[in-house]
Amino acid sequence: MPARELSALRPRPRVLSGMRPTGALHLGHYHGALKNWVRLQDEYDCFYFVADWHALTTHYQDREVIERNVYDMVIDWLAAGLDPERSTIFIQSRLPEHAELFTLLAMGTPLGWLERVPTYKDQIEKLKDRDLATYGFLGYPLLQAADILIYKAAFVPVGEDQSSHVELTREVARRFNHLYGRGADFDARAAAAQAKLGKDDSRYFERQRKAFGETGAAEALAKGEAMVHKAAALLSPEETELLLGHLRGAGRTVLPEPLALHTDVAKLPGLDGAKMSKSYGNSIAMRDEPAVVTQKLKRMPTDPQRVRRTDPGDPTRCPVWQFHQVYSDAATQDWVVQGCTSAGIGCLDCKQPVIDAILAEQAPWRERAETFLANPKQVQWIVEMGTERARTVARQTMKDVREAMGLNY
Ligand code: ATP
Ligand code: MG
Prior knowledge:
By secondary structure, the chain is mainly alpha-helical. It contains 18 helices and 5 strands. Helix 2 (27-40) links the parallel strand 1 and strand 2.
């Protein structure tokens, strides 16, 4: 069997991530997130969603913006190399299950957990022109928790600023499992699973469980876990999970805790040297026309102290240099430093390799996007397939959640 088919048989851990459809994606989105999403497809079962409800938390007054950008953003994703055969691409609002889980989780989530999320106060400060004193904006990290937990994602790729959201998700899952993981017949089912271990192992298990419960000894927990894993052949996967939960005194894991998947992504600077962001008006869109890209870069400011062509410059004061650090090889970088500091080259000369590199980077995106733009039905169909795939998983989780909470009457 070819390697590709073999690896398809092994279940791959699930990764979940989303992006808000608030405008055309720019090079910062590509280098900071999308490039990594494309890479993750090789190793993980990737679920990527259009976070249109999240867009509403800040853009609730701009419905046209979101409407216009949903499918355009999916085209940016496909253009960057997301493969709908391997990745599940879907739209959050098409799955009301997210809202149901959000509501159920909201009941037991202390207000303080949300108020303490660092991005909460930050964003309110930063986005002063919008009224973010809303219930939705406070709750959005909890909605994110629901997005993640509903797919039982193992990993969430995040930049540093978002780690606190994954941490909140873990706390929410832990609390849920603690409150509802035991269910009405938990003790009876745990006892039945324990009996399957046989007399000696069952006694050993009981000793470790007691020791861990009374003293919190990590060694007892490790011994107990090792024993359950060794006996896995005698147990169904549910029973294994049940016993592991029983051992920890935590009950069954209904909603597994995700881990943050940290990747080193540099912040991509914009045309003015500050972080590239569409709200700062300093961005280059992934699918900006070549003439527009060239224009933007030619007009881009350089070292403010290099006034005349004959003045030597200092790359560390120049935003173009930051682009060279992303886009140019060592030889070109040497040429820049040498030429700039000696006034051997002008600023337009210096910009040319960056212009060429960005145009070359964009060319395959533009080409792929064209086929999708010419065939919007195909894009809709990709989203349709992804949404249905996601729905199957989300429905199953909600069944488990309702059952755990005693809501299936
Ligand atoms: P913008 O900041 O342009 O208004 P946005 O606020 O809608 O866009 P974000 O949520 O800031 O979008 O970004 C989406 C993803 O892209 C995040 O993972 C973020 O870290 C990444 N990203 C955005 N801008 C940059 C950048 N300039 N450099 C690196 N990564 C970026
Ligand atoms: Mg932003």
